[in-house]
Here is the input.
Amino acid sequence: MGSKTYEGELHHEDANNSVPTKSNAVGGKPRGATLLEDGDGDFDSGDDDDEDGDGKNPSMAGLTPAENDGLEKPKNKKKKKKRGGKKKKTGSGTSATQQSFPPRVPLSQLFPDGKYPQGQIVEPKDDNLSRTTGEELRYLARGHIANDEVLNDYRKAAEIHRQVRHWVHKSVKPGQSLTDIANGIEDGVRALLGHQGLEPGDSLKGGMGFPTGLALNSCAAHFTPNPGQPDVILQQKDVMKVDFGVHVNGWIVDSAFTMTFDPVYDNLLAAVKDATNTGLKYSGVDARVSDISAAIQEAMESYEVEINKKVYPVKAIRNITGHNIKPYIIHGGKSIPFVKTNDPTKMEEGEVFAIETFGTTGKGYLDDGAGVYGYGKNPDAPSMHLPLASARSLLKTINQNFGTIVFCRRYLDRLGLDKYLLGMNSLVSNGIVDMYHPLNDIKGSYTAQFEHTILIKGSGNEIISRGDDY
Ligand SMILES: [Co+2]
Here is the structure.
């Protein structure tokens, strides 16, 4: 899920310190790296010292069609894929059984020892080295007693993401409706988590990290099917960004890829994949946002793509960014643009980032589209008396089921809610809930996205959502 920057932000940031890109921690103290040789490095939740929670999240929004139809919707029945708990080479889990197709076997059954495979560990670039003393390591360990558990939760969320997207790669085809695809992804995630999220509090233990994004063509991000609106059927010529999140105890894996069914877009996808991998490579303790962004842009804009006999330079989109992630908060206040900036903000030990990039054949600037993508409770929501009973009861439902996790109308419908729009409008107008809209480049353009979640650790960053697909 991308973070939309405020309009013009990138142009004033030199003069204006209050933009989200640099919301905190300019030159923050480097903290040490922790690391154990088995790769179970401690990992600091990053919520200790800079939780200013300025909640300056860029706007997001979403929109559109679909009807909500139930939960279970296996699409193509294909033969079972064997892929029991796909393991990364370094994985320590053992799979007692295999994942089904569509995926419905809870991950805990595939990894009976409860240890989930680690992601890709990458050496930090030399110029981002952080040095840590034993003393610092002990300090971190004391400060973050739940570290191993947190890391394991994170790896579980990532493995669920990989297994569910494996099903997407194999089963999603033109002719299917976006509602069916979204429901299929969400049914898979919830089944593997073992949390259907139908009882109060259940989806706070594990659930969708944000509304499943299925953005087509010029729509770059923040589109999810909504109940009661005309459904959209995936076409052969479409470029679809599949962006979904999985959380375990609030630790959100945010990872996305682009699907196409026509090789004409291959270079567009290659540009964006390269840009995202470049961003990941430049990430690390003490890495500067400005350096990461410049490297991303250079990689992205070294490509061109020919579509319908016209050659387009691939442009990096200027007003949506990667972002850090905090527990239950998808946009933690730091932003990683895909275009050059002078932002001196650094990544810090223990932080989590969603490194995503978007490339386009359009103008490289996104506008809010019609409709709604989703809603998210503002972490700094004012507490106030709400005169409207429907707003009060809706807020209670939100607190019980989502907290500050972004959700969409389909997620409310499956809880049995209806007629909540008036209450929602009241929550939005009172600043308690933020609303997100679809983000579109110009009509006729094509946009693509790739995204991974990376844990910043001085001893070796962990691209936790890395798979053999992207
Ligand atoms: Co994201």
In short: The first helix runs from residue 9 to 12.
